Amino acid sequence: MSKKGRILVAMSGGIDSSLAAVMLHEQGYEVIGMTMKTWDYATAGGSRKETGCCSLDSINDARNVAVSLGFPHYILDIREEFGDYVINHFTGEYLEGRTPNPCVLCNTHIKWDALLRRADKLGCEYIATGHYANIREENGRYVISKGLDENKDQSYALWGISQQSLSRTIFPLGGLRKTEIREMAMERGFFDLVNKSESYEICFVPDNDYRGFLKRRVEGLEKQVAGGEFVLEDGTIVGKHEGYPFYTIGQRKGLGIALGYPVFVTEIQKEKNRVVLGQYKDLSRDGMWVSKLNMVKYADLLGKPTQTVTKVRYKDAGTPALIEQVGDKMKVLFHEGVNGIAPGQAAVFYEGSDVIGGGWITASFRQDAD
């Protein structure tokens, strides 16, 4: 056993997770690599070749790194639990008129739990991933903070991880920039990793066509939801749509509506099978409600209204907001209007670079209509 301990590293086959394993190996940890098989292309269908973290090529790339450095590598098949939880949730959210975030859900409920269970079986004290984020212990809590590379920061996707799981997690890349990771890979001869393209698609929707995925997943869906109405914010009917699950808040393209000016999806009314359209200014909301909270920096904020910067999507720069915990929910009041808030997406609250906590957006509102 290494003096630093045994660590299980999640290796997707990409440059980030591979270099995380390389760094830990060089630091003296006893590294065990593990690639998780979350889905298979034959199940998902679609029109493109299998790519991404679950492809055979990616599994082989991860194994090659392990072999070159002389540490063990295993494949962990979690397709059943992934499908039952993440994919069913993904489908269900669209059928409820919401826009899901499966990557956050997978981190929170599948990958970390699966890794820690296997880590225990293999005698590993820690787990590690290639996420660009940091963890520290402060006042008895494990706090996630942004990675040094703001362009690659992934703290938004990690808010749901429990304190117990964070206590055993290491993020080796948190203090590095992507350019440095590429340089390190070049120096060590991992040229294939440097030249490998990165995938930003949902792993089980490799062709990036979630509408096609829903149609294949839910038999008869098109007939169930077809014939609904496009309406303006005042209720004026302006056309027929293909079905409310096939639209998302903020969508402009693919509506098939010509009104002489640009229109966007501003609301989805599942019960009426209606999709509400408005101008860009109509997307703006003053606040929102967030539920299923996971508090990170503080145990709770009951009775402690707090100034934050709140992000409503991964690439969101964040907006100053006052958050107030009401029971098990958070009321968020933005200091300026925020566009395109989509129920079903994650909201993450920041204090400087630190993640205070996060949750799932359930509703947004305008102050004059609250």
UniProtKB/TrEMBL annotation:
ATP binds at residues 10-17, 36, 130. Residues 226-279 form the tRNA-specific 2-thiouridylase MnmA-like central domain. Keywords: ATP-binding, Cytoplasm, Disulfide bond, Nucleotide-binding, RNA-binding, Transferase, tRNA processing, tRNA-binding. Disulfide bonds join 106-203. Its EC number is 2.8.1.13. It is found in: Cytoplasm. The record marks 131, 345 as: Interaction with tRNA. Belongs to the MnmA/TRMU family. This is tRNA-specific 2-thiouridylase MnmA.
